[in-house]
Amino acid sequence: MYAKQTIIINKSGLHARPASDFIIEAKKYESKVTIRKAGKDSASTGKDSASTGKDSALAEEGSAPVNAKSIARLLGEGIAKGDVIEIAAEGPDEQTAVDSLVALVETGFGE
Q1: What's the pLDDT at 61?
Q2: In what order do the strands lie in the sheet with 32-40?
Q3: Rg, C-alpha atoms of the chain
Q4: CA distance linking residue 66 with residue 26, whole number of Å
Q5: Phi-psi bin for 53: left (phi > 0), alpha (psi -120 to 50), beta?
Q6: What is the per-residue pLDDT for 39?
Q7: Spatial contact of 100 and 37, defined as CB atoms under 8 Å apart
Q8: Nearest to 16 by CA among 65, 66, 71, 68
Q9: Are the beta carbons of 64 and 14 closer than 8 angstroms?
Q10: CB contact at 8 A, 29 and 6
Q11: How many helices (H) and strands (E) in the chain?
Q12: Containing H/E element for 32?
């Protein structure tokens, strides 16, 4: 299993269009991919510290992981701007899947 945390930076969070973009990307990979809300960005440090997954600003508490390839589950998480999320994958292409999805989130979905 491979996982990374990042911070949602786009104004509208993971609403319908970004969630759809996320799922399209997640479905490119064979690995099982999950996402969970890990907390809030307590230090408002921005995306430089977000990608490490080790910064003290990233919370360790949050929701249980859900299937990141399901629009209903993804929208049900209510992921908003400033939320720290953890993307995890398990399977043959787990690292590529997680790194690609983290990169997508860190673009702000073009918003």
Answers
A1: 65
A2: 2-7, 83-90, 32-40, 66-67
A3: 12
A4: 13
A5: left
A6: 78
A7: no
A8: 71
A9: no
A10: no
A11: 4, 4
A12: strand 32-40
User: Where does residue 37 fall: left (phi above 0), alpha (psi -120 to 50 degrees), or beta otherwise?
Assistant: beta
Instruction: In whole angstroms, give the CA distance from residue 1 to residue 75.
Output: 24
In the chain, where the domains are located = 2-110
Span 45-88, pLDDT tens digits? 344 444 444 443 444 568 899 999 999 999 999 999 999 999 99
Tell me the C-alpha to C-alpha distance, in Å, between residue 22 and each of 6, 77, 81.
Answer: 14, 14, 15
> pLDDT higher for 98 or 60?
98
Residue matched to tokens 């690995």 = 31
Using DSSP's 3-state secondary structure scheme, residue 43 falls into: coil
29/67 Cα distance (integer angstroms): 13
pLDDT of 44 over the 70 cut: no
Q: Which fold has domain 2-110?
A: Histidine-containing Protein; Chain: A; (3.30.1340)
